[in-house]
Amino acid sequence: MTIFIVILLLCLLIFICVLAGAGMALKRKISLVISVLFLLISVSVIIAIAYVQIHQEQAISPGPKYGIVLDAGSSRTTVYVYQWPAEKENNTGVVSQTNKLKNESAAQGVLASIENYFQTQPFDFRGAHIITGQEEGVYGWITVNYLLGNFLEKNIWSTWVHPDGAETTGALDLGGASTQISFIPEKSEQNPNNTLEVTLYGYKYNVYTHSFQCYGRDESEKRLLASLAQGIRGQAFVDNPCYPRNYKLNLTMNYIFGSLCSAKFRPANYNPDQFVRFKGTGDPDQCLHRVSTLFNFTACHGEQDCSFDGVYQPNVKGKFSAFSGFYYTANALNLTGHFSLEEFNSSMSSFCSQDWNKVCIFLLDHSTS
C-alpha cells in the first residue's frame, strides 16, 4: 500500500508541474493533462490489482493438505500419501479403503473391522467401501490426467484455470485380478453400462471404462496354468512355454483351479491337495499362442466396436498411459522412458528365451542395482 501512495504522489506532482508550465499553448496543456490523468488511472488500476491479488493469495493459500488412501487389491495393499494445495481441495474423503472379496458377508466384516480401527486413529476418516470395476477404471483415468496437468494449470495470476485446448489421456491399468481401460471416445457415448459422467473442476467428462475381470496378471497366470494342466495323467512335468527354460515349480490343484476365474478348467480328477509340477521351456512364440487362447476374439463376430469376449468398446483415440502391472513388466525389462511396441516385444522375447540360471543372475543384478 505504501508503494501505491508514493506512485500516486509522484503522478500528482507531474500533474501540477504540467499545469504550472509556462509558455505552453492551451491545447497542448489540455493534451498533457489528459495523458497524465490516463497514466494516473492506469497505474492506480495496476497497483490495485496487484494489491488485491497478493492479499487474496495470502488469504486462500493456507498451505498444503494431505490425504491417505489404502488401496487393497487382490495381491497386496498399497498405501498412498497425497499432498495438494488447499485451494484445490473440495472437502472430499481423506482416508478410504478399496477392497474386492468373493464373499459379501466376509467383505462387510472386513470393512467393519477397518472402520472400527481407523475411527480410533488421528485421521479425518471418511469411510471404507468396495469400489466397482468401473470406479477403479475411472479413478485411474482421473489420476493419470491430474498428474499430466490436463485438468488444471496456473495462469499468470497464480489462479487455477482449465488448460485451453487440453486433450485427455487414456488409462490402462493391469492389476492382479482384473485390468481396466478408460478413455474419452471420439463420439459421445450414450451407453450407461460402459460410460460414466464425471465432473471435475466445473467441467464434465463422459468416460468410457471397462474392467476385464480375470484378466489381471495373477488370475491370467492361473487360467494359463489351468489350461496347461488339463487332462494330466500323472506325467512327471507339465511343460510351460511361458516359464524360463529349466525353471521348475510345484503348485497345488487348489492354487491352480481354486479361483473363480480358473474353476471352469477344473479336471474330473480334481484333488485340491494334489501337486502339479511345471517345467519351463522358454518358448516365447508358443507362450504367446497359449496366452492368446485366453481371449475370445470370435465373440465379437467381426464388429468394429468390440474388443474381445463380446465386450462393447468404441474406437480408441489419443494417447494412453499404462501403469501398475504394465509398468512393473517394462521396468523388469529395463525399459524406461519412451519405447516402441517392437522394442518391448524384442526385449520380452530375449528375456523369456533364456535359461533359468541366467535369469537368476539377471534378477540378482537388477535387484542390487
From TrEMBL:
Residues the record lists as binding ATP: 176-180
InterPro entries in the record: GDA1_CD39_NTPase (IPR000407)
PROSITE patterns registered for this protein in UniProt: GDA1_CD39_NTPASE (PS01238)
Keyword Membrane: yes
Highest taxon in the source lineage: Eukaryota
Keywords: ATP-binding, Hydrolase, Membrane, Nucleotide-binding, Transmembrane, Transmembrane helix
Annotated Gene Ontology cellular component terms: plasma membrane
TM stretches of this protein: 30-52
UniProt record similarity statement: Belongs to the GDA1/CD39 NTPase family.
PANTHER family on file: ADENOSINE/GUANOSINE DIPHOSPHATASE (PTHR11782), ECTONUCLEOSIDE TRIPHOSPHATE DIPHOSPHOHYDROLASE 3 (PTHR11782:SF38)
Name used for this protein in its record: Ectonucleoside triphosphate diphosphohydrolase 3
